Amino acid sequence: MISHLVCALSLVVFYSLQTAIFSQANLISGTADVVLLFLAAWSLQEQVKNSWLWTIVAGVLISLASAMPFFAPLIAYLGVISISKLLQRRVWRNPILAMFIVTLVGTIFQHGIYIFVLRITGAVFPFSISVDHIILPSLLLNLIFALPVYAVVSDLVGRIYPLEVEA
Amino acid sequence: MKFLSSKNTQTIVIIVVVAGLLFLALSGYLTPVFNLSLNPLVSFQKWLSVRYLSARDFLTTPSDVVLLREQNAILESQVTQLQTQLIEMEERLGEAQVCFALLDFGRTNPQYDYIAATVIGREISPFLQYIIIDKGTEDGVRYGMPVVTQQGLVGRIDAVIARASRVKLITDSTSVVNIRLQSAAIEAQLIGSLTGDLSLDMIPLDETIEPGDVVLTSGLGGNYPPNIFVGQVLSTQQRENALFQTASVQPIVNFESINAVLVIDNFEAINISPLIPEP
To answer: What is the distance between the alpha carbons of residues B203 and B190, in angstroms, rounded to a whole number?
Structure first.
């Protein structure tokens, strides 16, 4: 119960940070996605069992707020969590390395989904510009913020799960 | 002889000596003697005074430091309060300047009614150029309403909920605005891009456009009101075998730092899509 509450509150905080601050802090035209980083870090925690549920909640929330069509953010986040769960079983000895790998692969996957969806809807833009101006800068920003977000989420999980055991 | 007793004699001698000394002193004859005798005294006094002051300073300084620290803390707190007030004042001044500028725009364009709104967020996906404002249907904002600032055109309402709206900026890659060039009376299309740059398309090859030409909305298509300032032509490009020439446009609005906007609420966008023949 506590984990659900903390996850919901954290999601609201990260969503607000994303729309109010991180979406405005551009590197060329790329921006960091701290909601993606939060979901990746949350799902990498061994104790956490509800990551799929909150990924769907976050995906629906972002999809409703975003102008991106076809619930593309939800699809992207589900893909990122799939990668995260896959890596959690294989790189379990080094979660920080797993976080970086999830961030790297997840960001590319997310932007791939976005480009695909935008192309379907008729948006015309050169692929090379999207790579140079958006994907690579976003990837760099996500990798920079991956470690602090992972540290915050690990700390949160470390604090709430002993409470759950006691309860 | 009794008068000259030893006691009286002694008194008289003392009086005479004192009187003589006074006479000599007043007449200045004893100055060298005084100097000779007082200089060592002054030197000693000075030495003693310096040592005393040093000792007093040494003994009283700790209490002064405590006092000074207290005073310093009070002054620092005052400085902090004043700095906070200054920041608040600067923020209010900035907001007031934005409000005054928006008000000026409203006065110079009295034919429209405006809803002032604050920008509270931006689109999450970096592929899209949208902003989120704090006014929604409860404030009278509707889908399709044009959005401007005191400088010029920003975009149009793309989605709206009760207390917030999403604005599609003219820099979005899917945005197309019908414009005209003020100087040459040329009509064209303003197209956004992935990187937020603006360009003009559909300019006939035989038309001459110059850098610096003013770009205004034409009103064609019914999505935006006419004669809203958009920007200036930056450069032109003509490709061989192309049907039209293109141009880069420098927008008048700085889309990176929009804090407040005006929604034009008495302009009804016209949906002409049913009139466009399907391919």
So the answer is: 10
pTM of the complete model: 0.72
ipTM above 0.90, yes or no: no
Closest to A116 measured CA to CA, from A52, A68, A48: A68
**Could you say which residues of chain A have pLDDT below 50?**
167
pLDDT in tens, B99-150: 777 777 777 777 788 898 988 888 888 899 999 999 999 999 999 999 998 8
Does A62 sit within 8 Å of B124, measured CB to CB? yes
User: What mean pLDDT do residues B46-50 have?
Assistant: 79
Q: Are B249 and B179 in contact (CB under 8 A)?
A: no
Handedness of CA B223, B225, B228, B232 (dihedral sign): positive
Find chain A residues with C-beta within 8 A of B121's C-beta.
19-20, 23
Which chain B residues have a beta carbon less than 8 Å from that of A21? none
CATH number at residue A131: 1.10.1760
Q: Nearest CA to CA, how far is B110 from chain A (Å)?
A: 32
If you measure CA to CA, which chain B residue comes closest to A115?
B127
CATH of span B176-254: 2.40.10.350
Res. B97 pLDDT band, cuts 50 70 90: confident
Q: How do the residues of chain B divide into helix, strand and coil, expressed in percent and rounded to 5? A: 40, 25, 35
Alpha-carbon span B163 to B268, nearest angstrom: 20
- Domain B114-169 CATH assignment equals 2.40.10.340: yes
CB-based contact, A140 to chain B, within 8 Å: no
